[in-house]
Prior knowledge:
Shape: globular
CATH topology: TIM Barrel
CATH class: Alpha Beta
Order of helices and strands: EEEHEHEHEHEHEHEHHHHEHH
Largest sheet: 8 strands, parallel, barrel
Distance between the termini: 42 Å
Helix content: 25-40%
Number of domains: 1
Strand content: 5-15%
Strand order of the largest sheet: 3-4-5-6-7-8-9-10
CATH architecture: Alpha-Beta Barrel
CATH superfamily: NADP-dependent oxidoreductase domain
Amino acid sequence: MVNYRYLGNSGLKVSEITYGNWVTHGSQVDDAAAVQTVHAALDAGITTFDTADTYANQAAEVVLGRALSGQRREGLEIFTKCYFPVGAKGPNDTGLSRKHIFESINGSLKRLGTDYVDLYQAHRFDYETPLEETFQAFADIVRQGKALYIGVSEWTAEQLRAGHALAQDLGVQLISNQPQYSMLWRVIEERVVPTSEELGISQIVWSPMAQGVLTGKYLPGQPVPEGSRATDQRSGARFIQDFLRDDLLTAVQRLKPIAADAGLTMPQLAIAWVLQNPNVAAALVGASRPEQLADTVKASGVTLDADTLAAIDAALADTVNRDPEHTYTVSPKTRLS
Length: 337
């Protein structure tokens, strides 16, 4: 079964392996298979589910809501997000304005079939809306009981500090950030993580397997496997391209004996690695088939010893991206429409 961790400086516990449906529900996976996979996650002890209104242009929330229908709501932690264009994608169907936040949360609750979400997240930083407006709207949503806690995704250290100060002034809890993080992508370690530790903010990390590259299935000098994420534009193929360099894929192959010595599969090693960071509350995993979860959940509770961690660093060497400047490039400088 899956272990639990506290999310930020709060009393909320979440399953340290959290189910996310970014590129699966409503697009890559048919609804029946999606429901089966969610039920497999529940059977494995996962109680925390992460989605967003923008995933499959709102369809992913609908599928997740149906899949969780009939479950005891108090036994679940449901997360969603807003920022990116949704619906008709008009000028106010995006961003973190008060108008869009309220329309987004109301739509998300309806699609998810719930009265509240446990965590409501700003999917990116909005440079075009005053931060005070955004956090006043978040505070009002919390006071109305539509969300219990507030989180963000891919915010810089400075943005986290400013948002945390406003949240404190307004009497609400900003407890999480959702960045990309893996053995290969460590850009949050220098600035975001220390700031988060100071402020009582946890990381809920996405792509702990580097878009599937850390499974070892992509081989240097070989075509990408048929049916893999790299071949499917609907499943985020563009996000994997930077990881498909031969030098990087060669380095990843050197992880196979390290995983074997630790008694782990490659996916388990990747997930266990991010969970060694004490500022990480949860690793987001997706699945297109129930049996995939049976493997990944076994990473919960695994402790990697110092020799294993050192061997991983040596194997990956200079293929690892640690540049903190990348944290400043994720949020668009203007709203997308």
